[in-house]
Amino acid sequence: MEFNHKTVLLRETLEYLNIINDGIYVDGTAGGAGLSLEIVSRISKNGKLICIDQDPDAVLVCKDRLKNYENVMVVNNNFSNIISIVHNCGFNSVDGVVFDLGVSSYQLDAAERGFSYKKDAPLDMRISKDGKSALEGGNGMYYNQLKHIIRTYGEEKFYSNIASNIIKSRERRPIKTTLELAEIVKNSIPCYAKREGSHPAKRTFQAIRIYVNRELESLEYGLDGALKILRAGGRLVVITFHSLEDRIVKFKMNEWARGCICPSDFPVCVCGNNPKVRIIHKKAIKPSEEEIEFNSRSRSAKLRVCEKMA
Questions:
Q1: Whole-model pTM?
Q2: Less Cβ around it within 10 Å: N or C end of the chain?
Q3: Which domains, and CATH codes, for the chain?
Q4: Where are the alpha helices (DSSP H) in the chain?
């Protein structure tokens, strides 16, 4: 199985994770173990690394690539369950957590996984290979459901046309393949819009993928769980690839970093609200021009990092 994936913002991730020799770390989206290998090479045998991925293909690759490290545990699960995963591995707290969100290059490039609008395959899009696929879910949705998903998760301004044409096409026959769906989306977008930017189906495919995998809901749970299991001084590093993810991460970290919320004219604090984290870098960190040139998929990446306070 070829599981090739270039880890984005690798140098920055390792720097901001602030790895200590005998620390305990969680790679919540281990993928092909690229980042995991870098982390485990920086800790001693007394340190531990927990690698989590919900994709069973990734787990197989991860186990193989990390088989020589006795201080690594690989878990097939969703990072939204990070608290129970860490506890089941025998730990109460950890020194650092990394989430590298979105889908991997392998998942995008493997046509049979049904993520790509450029390759023909059954509509699937399940990262975990479990639950309802895009084919099963999409062909049962009503017009208003489709509109909401494409508008909310894809931030697609032609959501109404796309949803309407999906319904019309579906009345003739079920939409079964990625290229069928991509063609419907392409024909739903005005010509002037198709001349701008990326592939016309990109936003719709993103929306359906996010919906199928409940990605934003998992992210919220995962962030909250990561904060709870971090020990004081531990760091959370998150790499996002679209504005919906980044908005959630930014909001969460800013909320955690807030101190007193009492009105300014109160002589003393009565709210008792203390900051939970310190934001290490105020603005999101983006890839360099050199990295973007080397790996065009890194273009939209943003890294945010915070440190848990006592």
A1: 0.92
A2: C
A3: 10-105+215-308 (3.40.50.150), 115-213 (1.10.150.170)
A4: 10-17, 34-40, 56-65, 82-88, 105-109, 134-138, 143-154, 159-172, 178-188, 191-194, 202-213, 215-229, 243-257, 289-294
